[in-house]
Design goal:
The chain is an alpha/beta fold. It contains 13 helices and 13 strands. The two termini are about 40 Å apart. Bound molecules: pyridoxal-5'-phosphate. The site of pyridoxal-5'-phosphate has 15 residues, from helix 5 and helix 6.
């Protein structure tokens, strides 16, 4: 009779299960076909950089660029210092300058619009589609005028924006299109990889991105040789050859060490993409079973890498607080739409809420749940059952 009593007391001391929003430590334990862990391969790759000592533009950078070309199908790939710098380099290569206008989404991470302003050009914000959270292509054409220098569309949360429609509008006016694929590297639209869906594609290898390095990193992609050459020069101080500068550029090179880490991770990435897809679908199914229907909506011509697994809830603050107590971390991507950021705010709030209705309403309700390719079904079940306790 004493045994159940002891058991009960032990269970009182059982550690509460907590979850990581993203768990990169599990990634390091993944094994390749030869049974080598990612950790081991990264250690070997890093050691080899220490051995040759070419920390800037070493052979790993060239090798990474070759592999990125194969992965995306783009003819040219350039490793750069971050996703933000990739955007900046792309805009500079297109000649964006003071008083130009760049049409972009109202709902993204700040960097998307920041780089436009950094060049003293004007971001012209557009509302989003309700299902994908991406720029609404039907609202682009009315904003095009002789000052429009580019369209910068973001593939948010892992799913490409509607590039078929965006490219056809851009073609009509001979305007180049940039894809900010910081969150969508590895996804596809009509069988074409994100980063290769427009004039220039750029991505970020920030550690928490679907393909991340161990610091800052990014890449630019294009099928246009002239733009590829320009971007390469800009990323290296506008040098045509050593100490011969024919344009103004930046220090925008990717580190050799980060390239070595990415080369190791790239081998594992196709398998991670498959896992991301099946976990995303399972998560959605389980959430729908408890009445949450605001799960990610993926268009039939696209795939998603679920950089974020984002749903919508009302009373978000309370929901977030309750989940925190239950050991489930969450994040808000993003609480404030770009035109409402203090630095961009030109109209009063009520006016902005009306103009960017879908983006604004989304910003009030979106919440991202823990998501990574190593989440197990039983963990998802556990998270979903805790969510159901809060409803
Ligand atoms: C949509 C988007 N654009 C640009 C960036 C900037 O990338 P990075 O942090 O590598 O500069 C990010 C990163 O969070 C992003 O999510």
């Amino acid at each position: 009779m004493k045994i159940p009593f002891i058991k009960k007391n032990i269970s009182l001391f059982k550690k509460k299960q907590t979850f990581n929003f993203i768990d990169l430590s599990r990634q390091r334990k993944s094994k390749n076909k030869k049974g080598l862990t990612l950790k081991k391969i990264i250690d070997k790759n890093i050691q080899s950089v220490f051995d040759h000592g070419q920390y800037i533009l070493g052979p790993e950078v060239k090798q990474l660029e070759e592999e990125l070309k194969i992965f995306t199908g783009a003819e040219h790939a350039l490793g750069v210092s971050s996703g933000t710098d990739a955007l900046l380099i792309a805009l500079m290569a297109l000649g964006v300058k003071e008083n130009d206008e760049v049409i972009t989404t109202s709902f993204s991470f700040f960097a998307t619009a920041e780089v436009i302003s950094l060049l003293k050009a004007k971001p012209v914000f557009i509302d989003i589609e309700p299902n994908t959270y991406n720029i609404d292509p039907n609202k682009i054409e009315e904003k095009i005028n002789p000052r429009t220098k580019a369209i910068l569309a973001v593939s948010l949360y892992g799913q490409p924006a509607d590039f078929k429609k965006i490219n056809s509008i851009a073609d009509k006016y001979s305007i180049p299109v940039i894809e900010d694929a910081a969150q969508s590297f590895g996804s596809e639209q009509n069988g074409i990889k994100s980063c290769n869906l427009s004039t220039i594609g750029v991505t970020s290898f920030f550690p928490s991105k679907p393909l991340g390095c161990y610091g800052d990193g990014g890449a630019c992609f294009t099928n246009d040789l002239e733009l590829a050459n320009k971007m390469r020069m800009i990323s290296n101080h506008g040098q045509e050859k050593r100490y011969f500068h024919t344009s103004i550029g930046i220090n925008g090179r990717i580190d050799t060490l980060q390239a070595a880490i990415l080369l190791a991770k790239l081998e594992f990435y196709p398998d991670e993409i498959k896992k991301r897809k099946s976990i995303g679908e399972y998560y959605s199914k389980k959430l729908q079973e408890i009445g949450i229907n605001s799960t990610p909506k993926i268009n039939k011509e696209s795939t998603s890498v679920y950089a974020q697994f984002t749903i919508q809830v009302t009373s978000r603050d309370k929901f977030q607080e309750k989940l925190k107590v239950l050991g489930i971390p969450t994040a808000i991507h993003y609480p404030k739409i770009l035109p409402m950021q203090p630095v961009f705010k030109s109209l009063d709030s009520k006016e902005l809420e009306k103009t960017y209705k879908i983006a604004f309403e989304s910003s009030q309700k979106v919440i991202s749940l823990p998501f990574h390719p190593w989440l197990e079904k039983k963990e998802i079940n556990n998270i979903v059952s805790k969510i159901s306790e809060t409803l």
